[in-house]
Amino acid sequence: MPERHHRVRTWPGRFGGRSVAATAGSPVDPGATSRKPIIGLCGGIGAGKSHVAAMLAELGCRVIDSDQLSQAILSRPEVLAELVAWWGPDVRRADGTPDRRRIGEIVFADGAQKRRLESLLYPLIARERAAIIADEQTNSAVKAIVIDSPLLFESNLDRSCDVVVFVDAEASRRRERLRVNRGWTDAEVERRERWQLSADEKRRRADFVVDNNGSPGAVRPQLADILEEIVRRIQRRA
User: Fold this and answer.
1) Residues 6 or more apart in contact with residue 224 via CB below 8 angstroms
2) Which of 30, 35, 106, 135 is the most exposed, fewest CB within 10 Å of its CB?
3) pLDDT in tens for each of the 238 residues of the chain?
C-alpha cells in the first residue's frame, strides 16, 4: 500500500487550532487553544496499536494509554466495591484485585451492563486524562500528546483530538496476533468486535493511516513522517 500513510482528511474541529474539553462527548470550548497537538490513536483489535504507541513515545510523544487508566481506576477499592455490589464476589480475585476476565464476560454479554460500567469508569478516566494533558502541555520535552484508546470514536474521544491516526492491519493478520498473544478464538474476537465500529469505518474517519501489515521496521518511518506533518500543521495554525 504505497504512500498510504500520507493520506489526510480534515474533519470539523480538527487541525483548526482548537482543543476540546477532555470529557467524552463534551462540546468544543472556543476559548481553549492547544499548544501541543493531541493525537487520537485507534485501530482494529489486534492491529498492533500498542506497538505503534510505543514508537510514538520513542519519537517524543506522551502517550496516554486508556486501557492502563481503566485498569488503575478499576483497582480502586471504592470502584471494585461497587462492582462487587453489582455482580457479586466473582469479579474480585482472592488477592483483592479485579478479575478483568470475569468482568469482560459480564459486560461483553450484556449491553446494559457494559453501559453501566462505562457510566462509572468514563468520568473518572476523563478526569485523570485531563490532568495528564494539562501537565504535559507545559513539558518542553514532549512533541505531542497521544490518546491511545480502543474506543476512540465510540466514546467520542476523537472530539478531544486535533487529528486521528488509524493503525491498519489485515483481518487475518490481526486474528493470528490475537490467537498467539492472547489466546483468543475467532469467536471471542467477533464477540468483542461487535461492540466497536468496524475497522473500515475507523479507517474512513481517520486523518492518517499507518500500514502495519509489514515488518516492525517499516512502521517507524511512517510515524516519523506523520508526526512531523502533524506538528508542522498545528504550529502553523497556532
Assistant:
1) 59
2) 30
3) 333 444 444 443 454 433 333 333 333 333 344 479 999 999 888 788 888 999 999 999 999 999 999 999 999 999 999 999 999 999 999 999 999 999 999 998 898 999 999 999 999 999 999 999 999 999 999 999 999 998 899 889 999 999 999 998 887 888 887 787 788 788 887 777 777 888 899 999 999 999 988 887 889 999 999 999 999 988 887 6
Cell numbers at 158, concatenated: 476523537
Alpha carbons 168 and 199: distance in angstroms, whole number = 8
Q: Do 220 and 227 form a contact (C-beta atoms < 8 A)?
A: no
DSSP 17-50: SEEE-SSTTPPEEEEEE-SS-EEEEEESTTS-HH
User: Scanning the structure block, which residue is given the C-alpha cell 501537565?
Assistant: 135
Domain 4-237, CATH among 3.40.50.11780, 3.90.550.10, 3.40.50.300, 3.40.1010.10: 3.40.50.300
